Amino acid sequence: MPELGRREIPGLLLRMVPESRRIIEAAAGAPAGQAVSGSMEWFDLYDFLSAVFRGLLSPALTEKNRDDDLLARSFDFVETVLRSSNESVSGAGYFQVVEPLFGSEDLLVAAVPVMREETLRLTLSELDTERLSSGARAALVDYLT
User: Fold this and answer.
1) What is the number of other CB atoms lying within 10 angstroms of the CB of residue 142?
2) Closest listed residue to residue 28, CA positions, set 52, 59, 60, 58
3) Which residue, among 119, 126, 127, has the nearest Cα to 74 in the 3D structure?
4) pTM of the entire structure?
């Protein structure tokens, strides 16, 4: 995958997941169009991806009536970030999107089935299955074997 610079992340997110507009605007303190122009030095990538996780991905995973299209596009974005050859970008994606899933079995169980290849590989390679409840292990059995 070609190198993806941190300044490209907000614009990529807005293109892939237009529902992220309010998160981008809140993080930037500016209209989304201005924030994604690449000309503003307005954000810390870790903080930005954490806000995306808390404000978009986590709620989408826990909604009663899940929006499968939104989740698919969101995990396409995550996959693109994780596959970046820019280690600071892919590392931020791992630490701010994948790692927080380990703190909530509900989020982890909801996320695994909609993850893309690299996201799933990273998640499963770091997952300590001994720490999972029997319910979570049962829910994820098809992915753990």
Assistant:
1) 8
2) 52
3) 119
4) 0.92
